[in-house]
């Protein structure tokens, strides 16, 4: 039986929502702060299949205009005039021009940055969708409402830390949970080892932190060991054994015991994961000298061992920095695009080679988009941006959303070519959560701003 086909326990659902509402009153800054018991009641079922969600975060605020480039003659000329020192030549975009199954109205066309050429075959195979103008919103917002400040807006717009946090959690910097981690709260109990539900290959990220789910951090080489335990300490196996006992044995002091528990979990998880990955050889070749590709290669290796680890639902996080292109954009951004294109292309092929393309969905995210108007040799902090979703379950070869008008002071511009988003991160999250098997009711508890949007599923997932 598929996860979606299992009827929920209505009494448990009502109890879950009552507890969530009570916690909302007690903690208005985090209305989704829910106990593990309540989450367990709402998701008192286990997934019988495997699905994984992979977030690729581009730190610094990716320049969307040189990522998804206006390609029809009129739009490209408007784009070129707005950023004469930054615009990519139209002739250089012919090989990456996108041919959607349903053409955009008015003859509008887009092309990918040349460095993203490895993604064109994925798009053409209907396995990649392009999200037009998505970003943080509290509710649907018009330009007039933004100008008048007559509706709630995401706090501290155009701030790196706050918008990174808002993308990942729906709260500014200081948030304690992210929507990936909150998804993990729902699914951890259904996995053979809950520790491997939320995995980051890129350090600590609020996106993967749940109310009960704890992100497990690995490196590009795999599990990160505890020094002195993985190998003989001072050349002595007995010393290593003694050290392991010392740092993992139960304690009477509450805080000391919790520290020992976390350490013991780390040691045991490292041993289990290292053993599982020891014999994994991927059939796919990943590019070398590409940090993002190395992270995604590790994700692919972890997915390859999903059965050994007892995983049914997993959420992964990888990232690449360097996107704060206030200057030297024309020099640096093409290299970043090539890194992203080669990494994502190899990872998608790995999911095909592993036979899990339909079960793994990857999406890009970033602090914000950037201004359409150049600041000489770069662009400044913006708001809405273009992003990609790819995987075998994606209803691809399509653009999702409304193409923004390429114009300074136009209907989608709140200043300097900053795009006012027409799709919210919450709607993206809701669409992906639906694919994972989260009910519409539970989504509203996980992502409270979603209730402000009449369209909660953007329709790009099978």
Question: How does this model look, in words?
Answer:
With 462 residues, the chain is α/β, with parallel strands linked by helices. It has a single domain (52-223, 288-452), classed as 3-Layer(aba) Sandwich (Alkaline Phosphatase, subunit A). The chain is built from 14 helices and 12 strands. It has helices at residues 10-26, 36-42, 73-82, 120-124, 143-148, 160-169, 179-187, 237-248, 254-277, 291-304, 306-309, 329-353, 425-436, 440-446; strands at residues 51-58, 68-70, 110-112, 128-135, 198-200, 216-219, 222-223, 313-320, 360-366, 385-390, 398-400, 423-424. Strands 1, 4, 5, 6, 7, 8, 9, 10, 11 and 12 form a 10-stranded mixed sheet that branches. A hairpin with a 2-residue loop joins strand 6 (216-219) and strand 7. The two termini are 18 Å apart.
Please outline the helices and strands.
Layout: H1 10-26, H2 36-42, E1 51-58, E2 68-70, H3 73-82, E3 110-112, H4 120-124, E4 128-135, H5 143-148, H6 160-169, H7 179-187, E5 198-200, E6 216-219, E7 222-223, H8 237-248, H9 254-277, H10 291-304, H11 306-309, E8 313-320, H12 329-353, E9 360-366, E10 385-390, E11 398-400, E12 423-424, H13 425-436, H14 440-446
Helix pairs in contact: 1-2, 10-12
Protein name: DUF1501 domain-containing protein
Pfam families: DUF1501
């Amino acid at each position: 039986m598929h996860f979606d086909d299992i009827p929920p326990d209505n009494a448990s659902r009502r109890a879950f929502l009552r507890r969530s509402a009570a916690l909302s009153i007690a903690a208005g800054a985090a209305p989704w702060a829910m106990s593990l018991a309540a989450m367990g009641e709402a998701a008192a079922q286990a997934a019988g299949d495997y699905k994984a969600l992979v977030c690729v975060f581009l730190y610094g605020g990716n320049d969307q205009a040189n990522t998804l480039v206006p390609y029809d003659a009129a739009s490209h000329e408007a784009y070129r005039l707005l950023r004469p020192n930054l615009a990519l030549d139209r002739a250089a975009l012919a090989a990456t021009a996108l041919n959607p199954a349903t053409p955009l109205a008015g003859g509008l066309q887009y092309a990918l940055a040349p460095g993203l050429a490895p993604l064109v075959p994925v798009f053409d195979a209907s396995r990649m969708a392009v999200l037009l103008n998505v970003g943080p919103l509290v509710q649907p917002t018009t330009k007039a409402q933004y100008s008048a400040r007559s509706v709630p807006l995401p706090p501290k717009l155009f701030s790196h830390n706050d918008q990174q946090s808002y993308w990942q959690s729906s709260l500014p910097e200081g948030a304690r949970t992210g929507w990936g981690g909150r998804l993990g709260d729902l699914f951890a109990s259904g996995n053979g080892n809950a520790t491997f539900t939320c995995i980051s290959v890129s350090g600590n990220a609020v996106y993967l932190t749940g109310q009960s789910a704890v992100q497990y951090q690995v490196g590009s080489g795999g599990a990160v060991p505890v020094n002195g335990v993985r190998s003989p300490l001072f050349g002595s196996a007995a010393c290593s054994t003694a050290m392991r006992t010392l740092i993992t044995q139960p304690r009477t002091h509450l805080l000391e015991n919790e520290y020992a528990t976390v350490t013991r979990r780390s040691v045991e998880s490292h041993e289990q994961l290292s053993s599982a990955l020891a014999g994994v050889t991927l059939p796919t070749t990943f590019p070398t000298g590409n940090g993002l590709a190395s992270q995604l290669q590790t994700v692919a290796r972890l997915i390859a061992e999903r059965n050994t680890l007892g995983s049914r639902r997993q959420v992964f996080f990888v990232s690449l920095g360097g996107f704060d292109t206030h200057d030297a954009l024309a020099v640096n951004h093409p290299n970043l695009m090539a890194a992203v294109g080669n990494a994502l292309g190899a990872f998608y092929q790995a999911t095909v080679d592993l036979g899990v393309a339909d079960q793994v969905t990857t999406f890009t995210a970033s602090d914000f988009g950037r201004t359409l108007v150049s600041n000489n040799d770069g662009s400044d902090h913006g708001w809405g941006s273009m992003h990609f979703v790819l995987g075998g379950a994606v209803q691809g070869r399509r653009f999702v959303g409304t193409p923004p008008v390429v114009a300074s002071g136009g209907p989608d511009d709140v200043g300097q070519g900053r795009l006012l988003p027409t799709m919210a991160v919450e709607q993206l999250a809701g669409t992906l959560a639906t694919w994972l098997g989260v009910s519409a009711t539970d989504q509203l508890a996980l992502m409270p701003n979603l209730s402000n949007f009449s369209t909660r599923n953007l329709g790009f997932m099978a």
